[in-house]
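Now for a sample.
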Amino acid sequence: MVKFGDKLESEVFQDWKFYSLDYKELKRRIGAEPYTLTEYREFQRSLDDEKAKVNAFFKLKYNELVRRIEAMEKAVPSLEEALKGLPQQHDDAHTPQYEAETGSDGGSASTDESHAAAQKIRLSHLDQEIGRVSQEVKDLAYFSGLNFTAVKKILKKHDKNRTSYPLTSKYASFLNSKPFNEATYDNLILRLSELWDKIRYIHGNASSMDKADGVDQQNIVRKTTKYWVHVDNIVDVKVLVLKHLPVLLFKKGVNNDPALNSIYFDNDNLELYHERMKREEGAQNLRFRWYGDRTKTDEVWVERKTHHEDWTSQKSIKERFPIKEKHLNDYLAGRYPIANAVQELRAKGKKKEKDLLDMQRLGDEVQQMVLNKKLHPMIRTSYNRTAFQLPADARVRISLDTDLTLVREDGFSRNNGNWRRDDTGFPFAELPKEDVIYFPYAVLEIKLQTQHGQEAPQWAMDLANSHLVEQVPKFSKFHHAVANFHVDKVEKVPFWFYQMNRSIVKPRPPLHLDPTRVDELDSDEEDVDHQDLRNRMDAAQTAAKNTVKIDKFGKIYFSNERTFLRWLNLCIYIFSFSLMLINLAPDYVSRHIGTMFSCFGIGLLVYNLAIFHLRAQALRNDDGDGPYELKFEPVVVAVLMASGAAVSVWLKWSGWV
């Protein structure tokens, strides 16, 4: 395992390493003898100086990035205006070539060529600068997060080794305020998103400035792959994605609150939870969602997800409709027919008749579902969502959910008869610890429109296979919350519970091997220390070997467990039969046969235990392609069992016993 001091030195951007916390020196001073009150005060002064050094550099670099972004924002309109009168470009998007029209005046043609070449150089420089700034935003975010972790670790190590001089309590306000991250990166990310989007538009690529009717989210059919993202990698993921997709703003020109809240319903038997966990065909999920202000819920979206298995040739589908919150409690109790809301919308003339008919059908079905299954509020999820998508193209959509919080709702008794708890709100500090879970990671979703049959773009595949994310197929916020809050009721927990007990942090690759970089390396940066490169690659390979890779072969891993349990069940039957013969048979021959069956059962158990561990090891080594069938073992078991039974019958009737 790589020590944190070495990690801090090797993974921080090398040009900034002298501005990082001197972790190793502080650690050395903790272990120095003797350690008196004078040394304690000297250590505290040194720690304060190191913190001030890191914080000063962070603010300086952050302000520099702001000024560079402002300069690019001023340069883009003039460049776009200068490019308008030029002929159509024909070369690749990164270095466009322009044809100069040949007129009667050779001097004019030469001037046009010079002007086109000058604009081409400006555009190329702008491409490179936005890439460099984007990469430096990523590096600064990782720098600040890594140094903040260094402060926490050094305080913890100090208090552990110097119990007579505790220090962490004196830095409580510092730790809670996260000073290195006090300036949010969201503003930089939004501005970079607009710059990348304008650059794509200038190059003639798809952008948010293309005309579109908006994003139709009435009925959505998507294929989704989910990942966990460590908090230190959140900015890295955002910057990488916005190079290819803009941040999706549903209403431009207004404040877009990223908050998203959902109330999930189920009954006391957790029927919806168990149906989905068992992957039953037609299993459904019901939630009530609102966007933006967590305390303002004028309009609530009722969403029903229906799961279809692959063998049905149908895709899982999400259907939804809006309803005013003032009508929601009556709707859930069956006192408010959805036809009333449909009639209001029909009178306003804002929806198509087909959509209104679908809304009434879905509303009636959901209402009957709530009443018949006795559904009530069970779980609340609250988080901030950043979505990336081209408004005119919904084929690829990426969302990143941060600050995920899971809260117990547990029925109308806890909610005082309301459809959600009104005694709390984000960040739910007033709730007891057993009623709230602060999820440690962000959740990344890559969504593809399945009807197009389109594979994920290469940059998305690079992201999915990078050190920035941990794949968690079929992750569900609702299932995770239910399994944590209702341990006594659940029959089966989600498989990712096993992944919660291990770190998802992966070694960061060297610059030349990192596919997630958004800039172009300069030639002088290519002269790297080859020995350092080999050491970091060896460390990455060692970490990879120590990681249990159940992601790709998740279903096979648990199928292996179930197969072993079935063989174990058979062995128990054999043991029971053999013990019955040994203890109850009146003759020695039957006892000998019972002993033989007992030995056979032990051998069968040991054999299948070995097979189980061999298969599990193959899956850990990313070699889970099989084969998995046992061709001869079932035949051998059947022959031995039948032979034993036949011998027993023959001995009994032949007079031997």
The chain is about 50% helix and 15% strand. The chain has three domains: 4-84+115-186, 219-511, 552-654.
